[in-house]
Amino acid sequence: YFGGVVITPIHVLSAASSFYTMVVTSITVRVGSSFRTKGGQVFNYKSYEVHDQYNSTTLANDIAIVTINGSFHGVPNVAPVQLQDHEYFVSPANPVNCFVLGWGDVKPGQLADRLQRSEYILLNHQQCEAKWGPRPTSVQCAQSVRGNACHFDDGGPLMCNNRMYGVLSYFYQLDCENTTTTKIHIFGKIAAPSIQAYLHRKLHHFDLDGRHGKRH
């Protein structure tokens, strides 16, 4: 189980690292519901692919695109998210507040029934590397402020200023059991040039700002 975000009428964006850890034989996508196991509408997948420059060691370019059978068009409570297309300048004097959504563990071995939200703040690249060591510029770190993401939240969105800025990476050091301390987690940075180029190359028929169905 992992998260994902609708980005076009037929595509879901998730984390490449989520797929890297398993043999995929089927994928179902539930949309239009805040409940994990009921409501909304369920779609089967047609195909998926990971970023062609994804690196499982450094987590560079950690995104994957799932194509569904059918279309999200007309499904109640479903619309493509708007993607951030430029990077934020992050500093103590210029904080960027964000949040993460998902149905991951609320305690060990227990997935959430309803969608959970945790508050985060972006970190700059130097702060990220101070925690996790050298990382490529397509990696974004964020620190929890209230609540935190947990196991099976990977693939879910990091939302900043109403746009998707990151995809939560599946990471063996995803520390979430102690909710009383802040956490620093790793995300694929949507605004990174290598990720932007990949998305526009693969989805060039679609308007990725989330406002229209296709480019004119």
Automatic annotation (TrEMBL):
Keywords annotated in UniProt: Disulfide bond, Hydrolase, Protease, Serine protease
Record bears the keyword Disulfide bond: yes
GO molecular function: serine-type endopeptidase activity
Top-level lineage group: Eukaryota
Domain Peptidase S1 residue range list: 1-204
Disulfide bond among keywords: yes
GO terms classed as biological process: proteolysis
Pfam family, one: Trypsin
Chain ranges passing through the membrane: none
UniProt family annotation: Belongs to the peptidase S1 family. CLIP subfamily.
The protein's name in its UniProt record: Putative trypsin-like serine protease
Organism name: Anopheles braziliensis
